[in-house]
Amino acid sequence: MRTKQLFALLLAAVCLCAVLAACGNRNTPTTPVADSLNVTTIGEAMEIAEEDTVQFSTYENAFVYVFGKDGTYWRLTADLTDEQSEALWALDVFDEEYDAKQKELVAPLAVTKCENLNEMKLTDEELNALVGKTGEDLLNDGWTSGMGYNLDDMAFFMEKAPFAYTVTFEAKEKLENTDDFDEQEAIRPLKVVSVKFDGLGNSATDIQTDDAEPVEDDMEGSGIDYLVLVNKEHLLPDGWEDTVELVDAQNTIPEGVELNKDNEYLATDVFRVEKNALEAFRALQADLEAEGIVMLLDSTYRSVARQEELWSEFEQKHGLEYTQNTVAVPGTSEHHTGLAIDVCIVKDGKIINDNNEMIAERDIFAKIHAKLADYGFILRFPEDGKEITGFDYEPWHFRYVGVDAAREIAAQGVTLEEYLGAVTEAAS
Ligand SMILES: [Zn+2]
Asked: Domain containing 193: what range?
């Protein structure tokens, strides 16, 4: 096994020159592109990448690094051995040195595949030719929607992989964000007014690997129980991490917001979230943004292995008692499900991601909480809920349960435990 992989790496190194040469030869002449990309390792690409364009994903057998440079977008793939893959997955995003540790692991990796993504970028002529077509035409032509919208100017954020575009539609009557608003259904009959190139889309790092799961388009097809209960008494069900369909997501940091060492992870981390939960979250985000509230992903899916690391780190830094009160025991964190999302907010151009500072932002969080149910989320750890949930108030922790259940839970004003009739004495 080991030998085979080493052989594959050697073979890849031998073939590298040919691969890179091919990368430079397939340019489309309509957009300015680099003639070739003279990098042999991920580290070399990291040196030249334009920072705000970087996306990456770790697969079981590959590391994918996507970036832009002088108007050209590149996707590099590097093979991973089991050991390298495990080392990358074991990294803790909460670790202050996460970036440095990740770089140390991926920088030496040899590039085994290089793609010039501009070949897949639609030219201005092609974009102009879309004016007058319908949303239906776009969806039939492989465009995807569900990344958010702004109903005020009828702009929908759509993707034609691997790039994202803002598609503005003509509305006969203004659309309303009703409870059962369905973005795809809404745009089907509408005519395209303009299409603007935005940059890399969410699926830019999607590649086919030997271990890649088949993609299911069906909303209901995820095969997981959206009402799963994971808490101190209810461990993550066996096999969950194999079944749940996680997708990668990154934050778009608003212009003018300065990041520092403590919060730059918000711009660089790739967050993993269950597919339908992410789609709902993007819609919630867009809805809030229209009201001037900027909410970002702060922490999402965490593997049981990462939770174990987090636990021991907190224990070392803050002691056992503090850790027991703030960190879920590995296997008991709702973040293992991929359905839990911790957010942070941007206020007056400043990131607010400190727990106490967020608790102090009562007005902003009240507005956010009021919208949760309509997008299928519940506030998982409400005020005064500790006796039942075992956790102090966490205004930032949302759990996706689907719209019907979320509305029912909100209407009843209960916790998930109460709703599921699974109240036992919470461990302290
Ligand atoms: Zn959380």
From this structure: 124-200
